[in-house]
Design brief:
About 5% of the residues lie in helices and about 60% in strands. The protein is globular and about 60 Å long. The chain has a single domain, classed as Porin, CATH 2.40.160.
């Protein structure tokens, strides 16, 4: 159970356009939230983002600011996570005691526009974490690239992301690699539609679909194999791995929510706001 929790230590983006699954691509609405996932997605955007994510008694928050500087787009922000006293479960879901969990990480990154259809980016996240009486700290790095192929008024994206490459240090105990991840996939952007399909090592397949029904409202749906692993063996497991979300848009503001069942962990709920500075 603790290993499953560790998957989420450095968070996921709030935008339901990427349906809480992470993605190698920018969001359809501009990509400020990519500061927290793939800095290669920050393609000249200037804006502020704040979001929260909660499941199974664990709560995350994140906030940040991105701005263009010539061919660079720079992003800075913070992330944090906290829980109260929680039950520690073994592989059979039997209780083995109590634990608490807290972490904090300043984040920074930049993307570089090689040309208007090709972006590369790097992000850096030093972090502090405490699980009960055990404290650890370390640093991790993200690196990615996005290639865009215009098709008239539509676009096809090819993306690659190397995530959480780094080390976690536990003083006087051990030093070990963080849980790194490799993502590759493609995306398709039309006037009212954004679709992405990708493969992650070691977490499997993820897909997402966002549909803008009006200038004020968009719906999103997705699947992530990682969440499928939280099943309980009951008939309701068919919903695990599926995420549903909606986005409300007004002028430069975007208010976003998403929801997905996570089996024994209960439902995960995300919410956030993006403000684009034009």
């Amino acid at each position: 159970m603790l290993y499953l929790f560790s998957v989420f230590t450095l968070f996921e983006p709030v935008s339901p356009r990427i349906v809480g699954m992470g993605t190698a691509f920018t969001t359809a609405s501009g990509g400020v939230t990519s500061l927290f996932w793939n800095p290669a997605g920050m393609m000249g955007d200037k804006g502020v983002v704040a979001s929260g994510f909660s499941f199974c008694g664990i709560n995350w928050f994140e906030g940040g600011y991105s701005f263009p500087a010539g061919r660079l787009t720079v992003g800075i922000g913070v992330k944090g996570m906290f829980s109260g006293e929680m039950d520690a479960l073994n592989e059979d879901a039997d209780m083995e005691g109590k634990f608490s969990w807290t972490s904090f990480a300043p984040v920074g990154g930049f993307s570089w526009m090689i040309d208007p259809d090709f972006y590369v980016g790097v992000g850096l996240k030093p972090f502090y974490e405490k699980v009960s009486n055990f404290t650890s700290y370390g640093i991790s790095m993200d690196a990615g690239m996005i290639r865009i192929f215009p098709l008239g008024e539509k676009e096809v994206f090819l993306g690659l992301l190397l995530k959480d490459m780094g080390y976690r240090i536990k003083p006087f105990v051990e030093e070990k690699e963080y849980h790194y991840e490799i993502r590759a996939g493609l995306g398709y952007l039309a006037e009212k539609l954004f679709f992405s399909l990708e493969y992650s090592y070691p977490y499997g397949v993820a897909a997402g679909l966002s549909w803008r029904v009006s200038s004020l409202l968009a719906f999103s749906f997705g699947y992530n194999h990682l969440y499928k692993e939280t099943g309980t063996g009951s008939g309701m497991d068919i919903f695990n791995g599926i995420t549903m979300g909606m986005e409300f848009l007004k002028d430069n503001y975007s208010l976003e929510f998403s929801f997905n069942p996570m089996g024994v962990l209960g439902p995960a709920v995300r919410g956030g706001v993006v403000y684009m500075l034009r």
